Automatic annotation (TrEMBL):
Cross-referenced InterPro entries: DNA/RNA_pol_sf (IPR043502), RVT_2 (IPR013103)
Entry-linked SUPFAM superfamilies: DNA/RNA polymerases
Protein name per UniProt: Reverse transcriptase Ty1/copia-type domain-containing protein
Residue stretches making up the Reverse transcriptase Ty1/copia-type domain: 2-168
Lineage, top ranks: Eukaryota, Viridiplantae, Streptophyta, Embryophyta, Tracheophyta
Superkingdom of the source species: Eukaryota
Native source organism of the sequence: Anisodus tanguticus
């Protein structure tokens, strides 16, 4: 919609709210009241470091928003919406003491906030929680170039040779690897740093997820694979997600799973990604809780998780005036899972599946979602399930909307 995105910061946020509990603190040595050195002070307002402080601040800012005509989103508690008409709307996202706002009413909101709280008006958003934002005529580019450079410097890989994929194809790792032991604290720090990069680089999700399984007892083999991710980042520092301006607000999901790919516990993965128009807005890749006995069952359960996320996104979009009138299309590449979702076929071979998973049929009947078959070649979430050769990796990466910074 070509709205501008502004950023505000509340100064000393935790000191704004009165606390309900009785809390006492000792007097500081150099600031004790003369002749009352043995007495303690009773707190009226929260202090930084106090356990009650975050909740007290959240209650304070939440009360302010709701007293001033905002509606708290029931599906995302950090989101507040104020609607005058379909064209006059203000959307505010709260992260502790930082606020992101967009819409058409932000100037009056800024003035009102500055009267209530001591604020820092950062202006147009350009850097937020390690993510850089570049506004262009065609849309918005979100990337983490500075953060990537910091990681490379921190782990002595800034001058390394780059590679063209984040993981070699056909790579298989196991926790029973007999390689030389690596410092787990150092390895954990590296993996956690890489995990935050997936905020703007979903295409490295698979590689980061794989090495995350070995943070408790890493070996030189695991470390070598992790270093390759850094080498890949070295050659793609300026890649990020591009969100173009468009009028198509149709939500579409892609869902996939691998069958028993983990060679240690044989559990499968749940992978899905959602697009609003041509832009990727949400993605997930995680291990399923139990071991399944067939590819049909694995794909079916993964589709359930994708459907749950689709319902949540539909409700969220509806609350910010982007209602999804038609059923949300979920693309799967397994016809038997699609058939099982539509009607209770294969009953003898699927009756062991927990009944809670069959709520997918109700969602299809209510036309909240519809399943669509896609060829494996067009399954976007394949990039979350296995390592690829460069040509396929680059093709899937571009579908996700990754571009170089201009």
């Amino acid at each position: 919609m070509k709205w501008k995105i502004h950023q505000l910061d509340v100064k000393s946020a935790f000191l704004n709210e009165y606390i309900e509990e009785e809390v006492y603190v000792e007097q500081l040595f150099d600031f004790a009241v003369r002749n009352h050195e043995n007495k303690v002070l009773k707190l009226k307002k929260a202090l930084y470091g106090l356990k009650q402080a975050p909740l007290a601040w959240n209650s304070c800012i939440d009360k302010y928003f709701q007293d001033n005509g905002f509606t708290r989103c029931l599906h995302e508690y950090s989101l507040y919406i104020k609607v005058h008409t379909n064209e006059d709307i203000l959307i505010v996202c709260l992260f502790v003491d930082e606020l992101i706002l967009t819409g058409s009413l932000f100037e009056s909101f800024k003035k009102a906030m500055s009267l209530e709280f001591e604020m820092t008006d950062i202006g147009l958003m350009s850097y937020y929680l390690g993510q850089e934002v570049k506004r262009m005529e065609e849309g918005i580019f979100i990337f983490q170039e500075s953060y990537t450079n910091e990681i490379l410097m921190k782990f002595n890989m800034f001058d390394c040779n780059s590679v063209n994929t984040s993981m070699e194809s056909k790579t298989k790792l196991s926790k029973f690897d007999d390689g030389e032991k690596v410092n787990p604290t150092f390895f954990k720090s590296l993996v956690v740093s890489l995990r935050y990069l997936t905020c703007t680089r979903p295409y490295i999700f698979f590689a980061v997820r794989v090495v995350s399984h070995f943070i408790e007892a890493p070996t030189s083999t695991h470390f070598k694979v992790t270093r390759r991710i850094l080498r890949y980042l070295k050659g793609t520092i300026d890649l990020g997600l591009f969100y173009s301006s468009f009028n198509d607000f149709n939500l579409v999901g892609y869902c996939d799973s691998d069958y028993a790919e983990d060679i240690d516990d044989r559990k499968s993965k749940i992978d899905f990604v959602f697009f609003l128009g041509d832009c990727v807005i949400s993605w997930s890749s995680k291990k399923q809780a139990i071991v399944h006995v067939s590819t049909r069952e694995v794909e079916y359960v993964a589709t359930i998780s994708c459907t749950c996320h689709a319902i949540w996104l539909r409700r969220l979009l509806n609350q910010i005036n982007l209602p999804q009138i038609e059923a949300t299309t979920i693309c799967v590449d397994n016809k038997s899972a699609q058939t099982l979702a539509k009607n209770p076929v294969y009953h003898d071979r699927s009756k062991h599946i927990d009944t809670r998973y069959h709520f997918l049929r109700k969602c299809i009947a209510k036309k909240d979602v519809e399943l669509k078959y896609v060829m494996s070649h067009d399954q976007v979430t394949y990039i979350f399930t296995k390592p690829f050769k460069f040509e396929d990796f680059q093709r899937l990466r571009s579908i996700l909307g990754m571009k170089k910074k201009n």
